[in-house]
Amino acid sequence: MAFSEQAVRAALAQVIDPDTRCDLVSGMAIRAVRVEGAAVAVDVELGYPARSQFEPMRARVVAALEAIGVQGAQVSVASRIASHAVQRGVKLIPGVRNIIAVASGKGGVGKSTTAVNLALALAAEGARVGILDADIYGPSIPTMLGISGRPESLVQNTMEPLVGHDIQANSIGFIIPSSDSPMVWRGPMVTQALEQLLTQTRWRDLDYLVVDLPPGTGDIQLTLSQRVPVTGAVIVTTPQDIALLDARKGLRMFQKVNIPILGLVENMSMHICSNCGHAEPIFGSGGGQKMATDYEVELLGQLPLDIRIREQADAGKPSVVAEPDGAIAAAYLAIARRVAVKIADLDRDMTSRFPNIVVQNT
Questions:
Q1: Among 33-47, 114-128, 221-235, 310-324, whose mean pLDDT is lowest?
Q2: Domain 99-344 belongs to what topology?
Q3: What percent of the chain is modeled with pLDDT above 90?
Q4: Rounded distance between C-alpha atoms, residue 292 and residue 288, angstroms
Q5: Taking the model in full, what pTM does it have?
Q6: In what order do the strands lie in the sheet with 30-36?
Q7: Among the four 65, 133, 192, 354, which has the fewest Cβ within 10 Å?
C-alpha cells in the first residue's frame, strides 16, 4: 500500500507535543518526511531539550502513522537548541547561546535551589548547561553542586569553569579564601565582579547559562539588564502575600528593561509531612497562579516544601541528581522543559547571519 506525503503530514498534525501543547506540524517540529511507496520515514526535531520525552514522542508518531495503515515506520526524534534574541545593543557572551536569569523579590524563597535544579534538569534533558552564581554576597552554588577548588587560568585574564554533575559553574565562592569570608564590598565592586565572572569565564559551547541572581532589584539586577545578554527571566516566589509582593517588583523590573518573563515558579506551595505524608498549604495557596494571571505570564510549576529538597541541596546532590526518578525531580524536569519551550518560542538571534559591512576610503 502506497502513501502520499500529504497523508503522512495530515496524520502527524494529529500528534500533540505535551510540552509545547501544539501539534507537530503547526509547531514546525517535522524536520523531514520521506515516502517511498509503503516505506515511511519521519524526522522530528524539537527546539528544546527533551531527552526523556524522545521515546514517548516516537511512540506517538508511530501510533499516528499506524492509524493510517503505515507499518514499520522509521521515526527519529532529536533536539536542536538555537540562540535567541537579547536586549538590543548588548554584546553576546562567547560560547553561550541563551542566558536564563533566575530571580526573586526577596530572600528565603528557594531561588538558588530552583536555579541549580533547573540547570541540572536542562542538562538531564540533553542540553549543555552552565550556572553562574551572581549572588556575590551569599554564594551558595559551590555547596549545592558539591564543588570545591579554584578556577584555573589557562589563558591570560580568563578562568576555566569548574564542573559538577556535568554542568559548568563559576562563583565568587570559588575565589574567596573561605566559605565564611564576608564580601565587604560596595556596589561598583560587586557589579565589576559579576561582569568578570561572566565574561572572563571560558564557557564551553553552552545551550543555556543559568544565572542565579541575589534577591531584590539592586545593582546586580541593573547590571544584568543593561550589560548582560539575557534571553529571559524566571521569577521564584512562595504563595505567601509578602513574598508575592516582592516578586511582583522583580517581575516588573524585568518588564521595564524589556527582558522576557519566561514564567513563575511557586516554591513551598505545599508542606509534605516527612512522617505521614500529609500535605498542607502552610504558606497559603493560589498566590502564584493569581500573580501569573495578573501579569499574563505562565505558572511554570509548583514545588512542595519537602525536607528532602533541602537535605539533598545541602549535601551537594540536588534533587534532580539525588533522586532522578522521583516525583520532585519530575517536577523540575517539567519546569525545565517549559522554560526551554518558552525560549524556543522567542525570536531567534540572527546577528551571526548578518554580513560585516566595512566602509573604506579609496
A1: 221-235
A2: Rossmann fold (3.40.50)
A3: 63
A4: 6
A5: 0.91
A6: 30-36, 39-46, 74-79
A7: 354
